């Protein structure tokens, strides 16, 4: 496969629908790293390493030195937002990063101004947009987004583009007939079908132009047959959905360990308080339902109660998210986990995770952008399940159970990189070392 991999020449444009706390923290972070003001901690593409060959070979390069990723110096940013603030103003209002750091990169951030956004208040009831597009139909809006994309590429002299949705969680919808085919989706846009949300319009525009697309929210977005079909036809990598940060990250780390030890789980109660714009949006029950569905599936898919009914058949799983403005972007989560072990004796685990939501999400945006660009240059198209590592609710082929175990997801990601670069895949069996040793006697 390596011989078909195109080089990462020229500029990579990263387009972001939604220039809120996550997107501005991401952009400011990359600009800080470019200037040597900070380190890209949390980014697998920048800080992670990968083992190649046998353990005895001791080949463990950094991922960025192993695969030809775009250099951060070649990355430029653009995006859309329902508010008119430039990235410096938006980042200052988000209050995630220190003012001193933002001021050190102020000119770079002020230069990034949002394009008018596609917005539909029926999908996000708790906020009102002022910097929004107006058009007769949703298809016309998609054409305007496509024009934005093409203009951005030309003005910034980009050889390649990727798009990562960093906008809000939309109200809950399920797949409908309008989502079945490319033709039905386009007809639905022309008829202003209410089952086509703004995120789906952005995804359509990107995929139609062959721009890789990742969905950082739990919205349906590109997880529909029509856009999966379009992604294959246009040779476009896609992935989603919902950045794996905070509480769900902890679940995908801890639950596989409980399952590995065959420890039972009777109940898992999770609650969060969050005070940023995302928290405000999720304060609406219709929007919270979208997030709830995304978060609820994690435990069930890891523990598989149908396969292990004695251990997890009576699992009670409840999730709450509360809007609490004083915390801002500082999310706090509590988990109470009722488990049982040998002879059915009960035990408890309690977790109090005080995290910064955007600090955890920003490196995910970077990794997805760089890996999607790599996938595009490797002629990989359609659903990129190997990027499940980054999502709460990984997108898979219809009927294929998603893998939520973060350790298995990491193996899948690393083996995909080895596959791209024509290196041996690693199973971690290890028995070959001992068989070789025995044969030497």
Describe this structure in words.
The chain has 441 residues and is of the alpha/beta class. The chain is built from 17 helices and eleven strands. The strands form two sheets. It has a seven-stranded parallel β-sheet, sandwiched between helices. It has a four-stranded mixed β-sheet with strand order 8-7-9-10. β5, α10 (225-233) and β6 (237-240) form a beta-alpha-beta unit. The longest helix has 21 residues, at 357-377. It is globular and about 70 Å long. The two termini are 39 Å apart. The model has no long low-confidence stretch (mean pLDDT 94).
Task: List the keywords.
441 residues; alpha/beta; seven-stranded parallel sheet; four-stranded mixed sheet; 17 helices; 11 strands
């Amino acid at each position: 496969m390596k011989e078909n991999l195109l080089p990462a020449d020229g500029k990579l444009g990263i387009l972001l629908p939604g220039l809120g706390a996550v997107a501005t923290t991401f952009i400011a972070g990359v600009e800080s790293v470019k200037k040597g003001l900070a380190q890209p901690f949390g980014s697998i593409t920048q800080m992670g390493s990968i083992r190649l060959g046998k353990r005895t070979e001791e080949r463990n390069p950094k991922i960025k030195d192993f695969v030809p990723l775009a250099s951060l110096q070649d990355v430029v940013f653009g995006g859309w937002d329902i508010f008119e603030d430039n990235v410096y103003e938006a980042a200052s209002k988000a209050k995630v990063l220190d003012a001193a750091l933002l001021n050190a990169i102020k000119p770079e951030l002020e230069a990034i101004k949002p394009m008018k956004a596609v917005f539909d208040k029926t999908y996000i009831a708790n906020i009102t947009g002022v910097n929004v597009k107006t058009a007769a139909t949703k298809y016309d809006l998609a054409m305007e987004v496509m024009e934005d994309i093409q203009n951005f590429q030309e003005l910034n002299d980009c050889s390649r583009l990727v798009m990562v949705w960093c906008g809000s969680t939309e109200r809950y919808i399920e797949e409908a007939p309008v989502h079945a085919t490319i033709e039905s989706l386009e007809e639905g846009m022309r008829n202003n079908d209410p089952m086509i949300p703004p995120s789906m319009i952005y995804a359509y525009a990107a995929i139609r132009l062959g721009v890789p697309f990742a969905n950082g929210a739990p919205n349906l977005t590109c997880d529909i047959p029509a856009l999966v079909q379009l992604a294959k036809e246009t040779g476009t990598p896609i992935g989603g959905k919902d950045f794996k940060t905070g509480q769900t990250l902890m679940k995908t780390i801890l639950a596989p360990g409980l399952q590995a030890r065959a420890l039972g789980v009777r109940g898992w109660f999770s609650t969060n308080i969050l005070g940023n714009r995302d928290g405000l949006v999720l304060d609406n029950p219709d929007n919270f339902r979208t997030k709830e569905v995304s978060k609820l599936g994690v435990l069930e898919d890891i523990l598989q109660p149908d396969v292990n009914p004695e251990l997890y058949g009576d699992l009670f799983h409840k999730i709450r998210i509360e809007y609490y403005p004083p915390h801002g972007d500082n999310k706090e989560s509590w988990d109470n986990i009722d488990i049982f072990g040998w002879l059915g004796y009960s035990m408890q685990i309690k977790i109090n995770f005080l995290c910064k939501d955007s600090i955890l999400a920003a490196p995910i945006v970077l990794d997805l952008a760089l890996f999607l660009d790599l996938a595009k240059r490797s002629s990989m198209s359609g659903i990129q399940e190997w990027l499940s590592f980054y999502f709460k609710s990984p997108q898979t082929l219809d009927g294929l159970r998603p893998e939520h175990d973060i350790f298995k997801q990491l193996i899948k990601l690393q083996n995909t990189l080895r596959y791209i670069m024509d290196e041996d895949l690693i199973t971690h069996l290890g028995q070959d070392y001992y068989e070789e040793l025995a044969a030497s006697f």
